[in-house]
Amino acid sequence: MGIENLAEKAQILIRSRLCNPNFIFKPLSDSPDSNYSKLKFIISSSIMEACNNSILLLGPRGSGKVAVLELVLSDLLEEYPDTITVIRLNGLLHSEDNSAFKEIARQLCMEHHLLFSKMASFDDNSQFMIAMLRECGLAHKTVIFALDEFDLFAQGKQRLLYSLLDAMQSVTSQAVVVGVSCRLDADQLLEKRVRSRFSHRKLLFLPPSKEDVQRLLEHILSLPMDSSLAHDYAAEFNEKLQSILADERFKEIISNYLNSNSTTNHLLRFLFIAISNMELKSGFLSLENFKAALSSIQRQPKQECIKDCSILELYILVCMKRLEIREQNSYNFSSVMKEYKSIHDSFPTSDYYAQNVCLRAFEHLLQRELICFTDNRGHSQSIEFRQVKLVVSYAELQEGLKSYRSCPAILLKLIDR
């Protein structure tokens, strides 16, 4: 088998891993201190001891809350196949009480092979849920409610949360409520009557540590030695991978990326781009693949626009930035032209244009949305006198000028001052 075919197979294998949350989070679940272990212990204890429980999974989007929850639920369904019922709700779809109770009734009917009535009223579905919780408790079965986007259920009258947590106060019911939210103050959104029935357990999903990242990279990118891939190729691939992971330049790339995007989901996205950049002819990953992924994922649309600007437009942007640095927050085209003239008087160059030409460049910057009007008032005013502001940050403008091939040296000096 040719090296290109082997490389293509390796690429497909690694990309399939990156799309499989179970594979990704399994190595992070071995530790007894992991959120996986803690969540599994809480839910399994509730099942074994026949008690009610509630818990919140909190952390930024992409930190693996739902993936870990699904991993725990799949493991528990294998261990206790006849004693668990899982009801899944999402705040984006079911935050309205009527639709939430109807969805709970539908899923309970499907799970227990009952006839579901679409015409049932709100009260009917509410009473049905309470009755089913009581019946499941008497039959020693646990109902697990997984509420994604939990903070959306906490809006409005919170009748669903109150009914659910109130029903769990009964000794006959047996249920676990798991809320998932990216809001760290999700429990503070609860009404007093709901909060008093909540058990106040919380698991925080923090960015992975350096050790976790290293272990995750090896777990995802290393090829298995006992697969359909040639043994020699897999061994050489893993050897080259280890040298890349140990390279200080690679560690710097990962560190730079995680400083801006520290969640596991963002790391997986970065690795997917790096794997897609792998050259099939060489058959192996290289440091350049990760460099290309970093530059691709950190592309700034505003910087791309600056590269397509004319020299005059660059002058206008620098003039506006200089006005802002001097804390002149309110300015218009006329103010910018005064700054432009002062620059030319201090540093005489050939890049000096008539006011009507500058106005056309100014309008072009408005069209490209690199600058904008400060408010929507003053439509009757001429463009020269309407207040404007920059939509480009200092860092974006500075990097844009540096990457501009024929940028005048004077502009780089002015922006650095």
Automatic annotation (TrEMBL):
Keywords of this entry: ATP-binding, DNA replication, DNA-binding, Nucleotide-binding, Nucleus
UniProt-recorded Gene Ontology molecular function terms: ATP binding; ATP hydrolysis activity; DNA replication origin binding
InterPro entries: ATPase_AAA_core (IPR003959), ORC4 (IPR016527), ORC4_C (IPR032705), P-loop_NTPase (IPR027417)
Subcellular location: Nucleus
Gene Ontology CC terms, in alphabetical order: nuclear origin of replication recognition complex
Domain of life: Eukaryota
GO BP annotations, alphabetical order: DNA replication initiation; response to sucrose
Residues covered by the ATPase AAA-type core domain: 55-201
Domain Origin recognition complex subunit 4 C-terminal: 216-400
Family: Belongs to the ORC4 family.
Its biological purpose: Component of the origin recognition complex (ORC) that binds origins of replication. DNA-binding is ATP-dependent. The specific DNA sequences that define origins of replication have not been identified yet. ORC is required to assemble the pre-replication complex necessary to initiate DNA replication.
Protein name: Origin of replication complex subunit 4
Origin species: Populus trichocarpa (Western balsam poplar)
